[in-house]
């Protein structure tokens, strides 16, 4: 076919595919020889998806995959620092690059690269040739550098998000049309590629300037007209660099590409070469899928060929997924009568399981109205039961229910026996949400599986665990985005305003996806050796947390209001003092103005400006200035600004915001806990976050006074004492620390005595404080620099403290080194209870390596502490079942209860016994777990 009008060229950014595949998948190796192969597996799946999803009239007539050549390009001659900041390729990715080229050719797709030019230049050249010949072009990439090509028959397509990038999308991102993108990029620069740009000018400012002056050359010629002095100076002083930057970011659309567009015509894969490559790579599932599509027999291969790097068993991945049934949205059923509902209930009973999902009007389960329920029993077959859809598609269309919906009470009454039947497994994604929705309607779901928690147990540290991401990663399917139904911003509607026919496709798909994820994940739990973690630490926690969240905690708005007023007055006083020290009025809340006062007006040395041109005035900068008392007034000003910021945050984040979170029906705040939020197993509290209320300052502690017990009740707090240090003493096997915990000795004083040779009876508070900072700092891999900042002492002195610490307790250093070595070898670390925390960056180089190393050291300790309190929480309901009490909150190592007056002591005894014995029988610790307890009318008194 001669390329011309009516032809459609697809240009795939091959390098982007490789990196996306590498970072999206867990490390995978070929079973036969251990060759890293994860990026190749992901690349092949993505390429096959493009080839199969774009067939037919709307598909391409011509296609090519374009790669970057590995050597330098003409841009290095223009600017020798171009891309100088880029880190080296990961060692396990380097050998996979040639294999992706081989894969492209195996799929019978044109594979293009050219020495001296980047892939973007080849794409630009081919796109120009295609449009000049009268054809259309789709660039399959989300790379911002390619957006300058959009328009005149060229669009981009983000394959990961199934999103077309056209002229409007480019304007939304850059603030200018595609033909002016290079002008904006030249001004803003690019830190990733080391394009210099103009100092202090970002994308938004660059767009404003280009829109005002028309183009870059006009702007530079008229820079003297710019009123803002810093912008004017940046442009006038960097004109040459800006012009160089434009040359760097402008794609060469006349690269000497060999061959013609006709050479890129779509060709069917040749079964022989393709099967040979896929089988050699040992891609068992993809080989089978491709063979079925080509109507040939797949070559025999050993099962589970693709193996996660550093793991004993294979895990789920797009290259190792179950047989797939197509997602046919039009086949999903809408249940509008009782006969159809009964038919589905009978199918559920026959199957013994059902995936279930709810649609509501809000993410707040305590205020959400139930709009509909979706069910799935067999992949590809799902239904939606509309219950609360309203007429019209907007908020002004009235509140009458749309016709053709079964009464909610009727449906819930029919489903209740199924959802509570012990013989039928209910399957959900983030089941805690649906559990609470059904609980508010008198249904207690049991038993159940949760695909989000299955993924979390297997893949913590590798990726997040939301349904859309899991579906894309493990099913190769992108679900319908909720935003496409509800809209966004001020025009967004709630789900009850979505037309029923539209809702069916979205809601039923959710149940269908959940069922398929369950089928994929369930057998992998055992292979990944985390079944016990899921069964004992993750799934049983769901109803416990759901009950706590529904109970909520009473908050006195009057106390919060008084605190807000007091904080406002305190802020005003601090502002007056700060401005007096500055010698002039300024906005204390403006980091830019603060930086100018400190570094320009007051002359504090060492000020550093960021890309926006403003001085850095973060907490670390202010703490360093405040600690340098030789500076005089600037040090005092910095200290007061830190105080002002702390009070301001307490006011805005807590005393003001908490008032808006009080549920008007219950008079309580109902936080929501994320089970799969932190890699280590720690719970995260949101809407509102009650785990970050400061307790080290008097103002922070006062906020807890607003959390009060109900009439005739008391609040009881039980808190593990130094649990992470106890776990460290156990896992690192430190005799002195273990004995001190057994004897009930002050561990920080004992550490100080060991380090500084000071007898316990002569210990000072300052020496003990330093030992405490080191004890807790070591758990988090603190550096000499970090300890110096915490203690406000010279860095050399802080490093000497850390060195002495490891000399006194060599077992800790041995534990740290052994843990890092294990992580590098296995790709994960484990807690005492078998929880796996993956460490994908542990073998990286540069700053990332240091962070990954510290995280690997801390994860088994913090994770074990999280596991212990989880075990305690799961055992707590039966332990206190006979008492007039309920558990309300978990704040890391603390549990908060509400109990009737007169029963607090009994509750403390039962809860303490449960918490102190939570590790047994799974783990026998060499040190005792100790729980401190308190009680009072409010949280501050109890804690």
Provide a descriptive summary of the structure in words.
Strand 6 and strand 7 form a beta hairpin. Among the domains are: 173 residues, Rossmann fold (3-Layer(aba) Sandwich), CATH 3.40.50.1010; 200 residues, Ribonuclease H-like superfamily/Ribonuclease H (Nucleotidyltransferase, domain 5); 106 residues, Taq DNA Polymerase, Chain T, domain 4; 138 residues, DNA polymerase, domain 1, CATH 1.10.150.20. Helix content is 47%, strand content 12%. It is α/β, with parallel strands linked by helices.
How is this fold's topology laid out?
Layout: E1 8-13, H1 14-24, E2 28-30, H2 38-53, E3 62-66, H3 74-78, H4 97-106, E4 110-112, H5 119-132, E5 136-140, E6 154-158, E7 163-165, H6 167-174, H7 181-188, H8 203-213, H9 216-221, H10 229-237, H11 239-249, H12 271-281, H13 284-294, E8 306-308, E9 333-334, H14 338-351, E10 353-360, E11 370-378, E12 381-386, H15 408-419, E13 425-428, H16 431-439, E14 448-450, H17 451-459, H18 467-475, H19 483-486, H20 500-527, H21 531-538, H22 541-551, E15 553-554, H23 557-582, H24 591-601, H25 619-627, H26 633-660, E16 668-669, E17 672-674, E18 684-686, H27 698-703, E19 713-720, H28 723-731, H29 735-743, H30 747-756, H31 765-779, H32 784-791, H33 795-808, H34 810-826, E20 828-830, E21 836-838, H35 847-879, E22 885-891, E23 894-900, H36 904-916, E24 931-936, H37 939-942
Parallel strand pairs: 1-3, 1-5, 3-4, 5-6, 9-12, 10-13, 13-14
Antiparallel strand pairs: 2-8, 6-7, 10-11, 11-12, 15-16, 17-18, 19-23, 19-24, 20-21, 22-23
Helix pairs in contact: 1-2, 2-4, 7-8, 7-11, 12-13, 14-15, 16-22, 17-20, 18-20, 23-26, 25-26, 28-35, 30-31, 32-33, 33-34, 35-36
